[in-house]
User: What shape does this take?
Amino acid sequence: MQSDIRESETIEFDSRKPVAIVGAGLAGLTAAYFLRRQNVPVVLYEAGQKIAGLATSFHDQDGFTYDFGAHFLTNRLAAATGIGAHCRTVKYYGETVLLRGRTYSYPFGLLQVPRFLAGGLASRIQPVDEKRKNSSAAEWFRASYGRELADEVALPLLEAWSGAAASDLSASVGNKLQNSIGQTLSLKLASRLTGRAVACGYSHEMPENPSVWHVYPDGGLGLLCQKLADELENAIQLESPVEEILVDSGRVQAIRVKGREQAVSAVISTAPCNILPKLVKGTNVLQPLSRFRFRPMVFVNMRFQGRGLLPDTVLWTPENEFPFFRLTETPLSMPWLAPSDKTLITVDIGCNVGDEIWQMEEERLGQYCLEHLKPIVPDANQRYLGCRVLRTPIAYPVFLNEYEAERQKFERSTGVEGLYSIGRNGEFDHILMEDIYWQTLKKVRGIVGALQH
Amino acid sequence: MVKQPITKLGAPCRAGANAPLSLVSVNCCICDLNDVEPVGVGEDFEYRTSPDTFLAVRCRNCGLIYTNPRPAMQDLSRIYPPDYHAFEFSAERYGFVYQVRQKLEARRLLSCCKGLGKDARIIDVGCGDGFHLNLLKKFGQPSWQLEGVDPSDRAVEAGTRKGLKIHHGIVQDLVEDFVLPQASYDLAFMIATIEHVDDPSAVLTTVRSLLKPGGKVIIVTDNTDTLDFQLFKTRHWGGYHFPRHWNLFNPNTIRALAQKTLMEVDTLTTVVSPVNWVYSIRNTLVDWQAPKWLVERFSLNSTFSLGIFTLFDMLHQWMGRGALIRATLRRPL
Assistant: This one.
């Protein structure tokens, strides 16, 4: 995609003071791309050796592809960024839940269980105590889904995912989820009829409809970032961590990179927001962010002989006999991620940095998962070909009630003039690919407006 | 789980058209802003000229619908293949539909020419194979001076064969090169043209300069303020004509364009057309891989579906929401 800036659109900015963007992931690259289109000078600083952040895929010599973060994007995002011609349509995507040895498709299959159906219906009929419902994630799920479904499925998954008790989590976890039942039903039906994995619950910023489905770029999600980066020649500085953001009188003035101070007109950070208090000098207003927690996660990518070892692309395992809460057999949706006679199952295990799981060696982790996979894939041992482990200390934001008020305040503004925190880690929000793009676009418009003033 | 075959990259495309197009990002042609929301995503369902997918966006400021990103100018020859329909909408190829369209269009055209003198000079910008000029030649006053402009060699060739005077090129270049004289024309037509051009404001400003003070331009273009747009806008709407219709208007955005180009709006109405209905259904069927015999029931050849949807669109026209906009803009005196 080439940019086509006309003279009339050119906005005058002080070129000596660029906007500094921290992090060359999808959010940072999108922000840089759109600022550039508005003729705003930008410099994008990336601490690592490569761009793309969480949107990275690895390929091994045996023909397997491992996605680090998201597995796919939507055809709408692909078209918006001009990479549609390089994407494959994902034809199918499904989720199931394993309970007492039986699998139920998610979400409607769970209603086959009479107690879930009765509890769900009761929750719809009973008057809602809004204050109680909004007091915690536990109460929110009970009030929304019924006590049985919440206690047996939703809350155990939420706790494994976040590493915190559901009663300590804020109700906004629930509020950020899902479409209405009617919409979910129509999107699932559209998926079945069209033979495409219609996106359902993936895009909150822009409406979902049967014409928006999942696609996978050739070679992995990094292609999307590369496309944006191609337009940013000379603006990306790799291996250049921003060491300090200097604030004076409540306004960003400069940054320090490799020991050198550089004046900036604004800073857009995509770094995990809880490190901002350490990074920002000259103000204490960001101090509350240091309490925000991210959930570390270990992803064990297990290679197996055969295909179709799981009943569906994703299998949720809410019962606590399993150390993992989610298994994903990506080749069921994206056959090209593994050789045709082999498959890949990603095992998601929540943990804490430095704990036993975090420190476990790769092969031991593989064996540990194999043991627990036996009830699901009985011949997993015979099929096992090895594994590759990816670890991240910042997989998901944890919405604890103890800092909910600060989180909501942060959602509105960083409190420092000229400092913006965007993207999944920057906004401290579980935002998926397409939402990152459109939200960033919206924020960039606001930033340009502020700079012009 | 059934083992799935690996799908190909991108959208299906015709033989030899596997290479992606070069795409450019643009701002709204009315507001010069990039404040958009996505409306629809689709592909070239009709001609399969590339594996690209395209996004239709709505400008939040003015409501214009436009394709963004869109093909670069150097790829025009790829997205308008030799078999493109506007290059030769012939009686032989389209039979009965041609005859009906000819009669209807002749009536409409002549109603636009009311009040023109014997020596009126008329230009059709984006005339294709000269279909409308030919009607004016056949049914209008013999003394009218008729000229056309089109960038396609093939269209110019087809029009010239009919004995029409057609200038080859784009209107801005032809004015710059003094091929077309300024302030000389009484009436200009832009029928199904403005949605194809890269910069509607620039083209309309040039057309304005060709008109005598008080002269008029008739713009006919797809209307996005319609039921067919609402129903099919997320992917299959015929009016998108991906990737060839770059800017799509409604009465409000046509007014905004007129204002930007210093034209006065004389009349602004809608016109009946079955084409977007028929092509919206056709695109849906093509996308869902319906059998060919069914797809062929919905085309410019299919008298039955064109007839049915003409009647259907008449109802909408009655409510002021016909499939096409017809705007008469005047160069102020």
Remarks:
- Chain B touches chain A at residues 1, 3-11, 20-27, 32, 34-35, 37-38, 40-43, 50-55, 68-69, 72, 234-236, 288 (CB under 8 Å).
